[in-house]
Design a protein that fits this description.
single chain; alpha/beta; Rossmann fold; 2 domains; 7-stranded parallel beta sheet
Length: 359
């Protein structure tokens, strides 16, 4: 029976649910419930994946929460699926059976690719479809706020527009165009605007590539600067946090929530922002200090905000952010349909089966 290590991540636990027939029933039930509303026959889909991976199913799938746990399991491992954990020459030296190291994303700097190649350990590339969906959603939120799509939705007559604070008036169409007779002010285009990407990791790059295609200038900030060739590929300029906040027309958050990022967008950060700038968050709500966000919206300094992640999920019915017409709130749907995650998982376990089952 093959032994596979997976980094202990709530999504990577899917691998355990698919390949390990001793997985605890509660985890398998949670996995099925996670898929059920989007997948008509969950059991059938699982069975089809297991059939396709018959060379390694069933497998002994162990989770590793940190580097020490990873190293403790490596001597018996045939494969590993990781995201933040590292596998280098030292780890390979204690892993004589290892056939594949599958990274959960494009950025494989946590893997010594040359050392793996020298030992015949496969390191297949993997581009998460879920990250692409989140990147699309971030762009959609920028446009929804910047172009006031939600704020003006169904306001097609004078009374509706006036009720929302606009002063519509028809133009003399015998002489000029009648466009924007609603006289909606403050519209923002993505083209020729500056995107400030807080984090240019897996999701940040998906946002950046779309922003670049739409003619945006891209700045980014994170703890460590990326190599020049990576910056060139994504068309991004590394700047300090303060400079990013000062120069950006749209700020998009893609950082993980930890002690270093919690509340990093605070009152001082909002003071640095351009008047009318727009904040988009598809990562974690608590990276933005809530009282400071409310103050920036109330004062009018912030042009608008869009969140797919929230301070409480589900939020209270009287969530105060709902009161702002320049705020768009979606209920944590940026990952898109479950089919994206399923295709990701099928590719990962397929890679494992080919690398391990072929030996």
């Amino acid at each position: 029976m093959a032994m596979i290590i997976v980094e202990d991540d709530k999504i990577l636990r899917f691998v355990q649910c698919l390949l390990d027939d001793t997985v605890v029933p509660e985890r398998l039930a949670a996995f099925k419930d996670f898929l059920a509303f989007d997948v008509p026959d969950v059991d059938g889909w699982i069975a089809s994946v297991q059939k396709d991976c018959a060379a390694i199913y069933p497998a002994d799938v162990r989770t590793a929460a940190d580097q020490d746990e990873l190293r403790a399991l490596l001597p018996d491992a045939d494969g590993a699926v990781i995201e933040a954990l590292e596998i280098g020459a030292e780890e390979l030296a204690i892993a004589p059976k290892l056939r594949i190291v599958q990274n959960f994303g494009l950025d494989r700097r946590n893997i010594d690719l040359d050392a793996c190649a020298a030992k015949g350990v496969a390191t297949p590339e993997f581009n998460r479809r879920v990250n692409r969906a989140v990147g699309e959603h971030a762009i959609a939120l920028m446009m929804a706020v910047g172009r006031k799509i939600v704020a003006t939705d169904r306001a097609l007559d004078f009374a509706a527009l006036e009720a929302r604070g606009y002063a519509p008036k028809l133009y003399d169409v015998k002489h000029i165009s009648g466009a924007n007779w609603a006289r909606v002010t403050g519209l923002k285009n993505l083209f020729n605007s500056t995107l400030g990407a807080l984090g240019l990791g897996e999701v940040g790059r998906e946002v950046a590539i779309r922003a670049k295609a739409m003619g945006m200038k891209i700045l980014y900030y994170q703890r460590r600067q990326l190599p020049p060739e990576v910056e060139a590929e994504w068309g991004a300029e590394y700047v300090s946090f303060d400079e990013l906040m000062r120069r950006s027309d749209f700020v998009s958050v893609h950082l993980p929530l930890n002690d270093g990022t919690r509340g990093m967008i605070d009152a001082k950060a909002f003071e640095l922002m351009k008047p009318g700038a727009i904040l988009v968050n598809v990562s974690r709500a608590h990276i933005v200090e809530r009282d400071a966000l409310m103050a920036a919206l109330t004062s009018g300094k912030l042009g608008g905000a869009a969140f797919d992640v929230h301070y409480e999920e589900p939020s209270a019915e009287d969530e105060p952010l709902k009161a702002f017409p320049n705020v768009v709130l979606s209920p944590h749907i940026a990952v898109g349909p479950r089919t994206e995650a399923l295709t990701d998982m099928a590719e990962i376990v397929g890679n494992l089966a080919r690398a391990i089952g072929g030996h």
